[in-house]
């Protein structure tokens, strides 16, 4: 999935009249019903991403036949992990830790 800012930026770039909107306000989750164009864009981008992740996780768990853990990382990972609910763990350095594990395994 694209990041939240990338998704919001693509709406502004790909349409004639929608403004560029920063979807992130890490202190507040957006209202579902926006009272302005910017609020509606923010709501759609954020809640759309949350819904997409939940759907992907549910389908992966169904296909795997077990409850795989869910981790968030990246610039918006902490914000999204809160919105995704319990059981989603934020790991800020997941990619770097994975690269370090891979590097150590190559050294052997």
Helix count, DSSP H or I runs of 4 or more residues = 4
| Terminal-residue CA separation | 35 Å
Q: Specify the overall morphology.
A: globular
**Which sequence of SSEs, written as H and E, runs from N to C?**
HHEHEH
- Structural class based on helices, strands and sheet pairing: mainly alpha
* Strands side by side in the biggest sheet: 1-2
Catalogue the unreliable spans: none
Gyration radius, rounded: 17 Å
The percentage of residues in β strands lies in 5-15%
Give the rounded overall mean pLDDT. Answer: 88
Helix share, percent: 55-70%
What's the count of strands? 2
Describe the sheet with the most strands: 2 strands, parallel
Explain this structure to me?
The protein is mainly alpha-helical. Helix content is 56%, strand content 6%. The chain has helices spanning 4-14, 37-64, 77-84, 94-107, and strands at residues 70-72, 88-90. It has a two-stranded parallel sheet. Helix 3 (77-84) links the parallel strand 1 (70-72) and strand 2 (88-90). The longest helix is centred in the middle third of the chain and has 28 residues, at 37-64. The chain is globular. The chain starts with a helix and ends with a helix.
